[in-house]
Amino acid sequence: MKKRSTLFKSLIFCSTFTTLLFSSKVDGKQKMLICEVQSYTGKASSLKELRTQTWQLKVDFSKNSIEKYKYLGENSYYSTYSIISSSANKLIAYEVTSWEGISSLVLDWNTKQLSYVHHFLKPNRESLSVHYGFCRS
After folding, report:
1. Where are the beta strands (DSSP E) in 61-126?
2. What residues are paired with 55 via a beta bridge?
3. What is the DSSP-derived secondary structure letter of residue 84?
4. Report field, pTM of the whole predicted structure over 0.90
5. In 3D, which of 99, 96, 100 has the Cα closest to residue 127?
6. What are phi and psi of 16, to 5 degrees?
7. Of 106, 101, 100, nearest to 83 (Cα)?
């Protein structure tokens, strides 16, 4: 039950920041992170757990972007996110795609905890996917 509570807290936290659009200046550094994330998909009332996923994040402050590489078996997937807020403690980014939906990503720099949610816009698809876990340099 604790896992589900943490999952919904992450979902609410990510969804809240999806609507915030403000920027801040950060130095021009890049950071590479490897993240192990627990993944869930479905409707908010009935999420099913997927296998743990490994993500590679390349945070580029000079471009205000995050590149995400996700590996699932022999397949890999790539996405780019726009950073909308960055501070010493948190980083918030989003991605909007015309074909899939909207995603928001929150990274806590102190704990290296990653929270991510994707809201699908296509009918006949699951409503959302939720991912959370921890990253390392």
Report:
1. 65-72, 75-86, 90-97, 101-108, 113-120
2. 35, 70
3. E
4. no
5. 100
6. -60, -45
7. 106
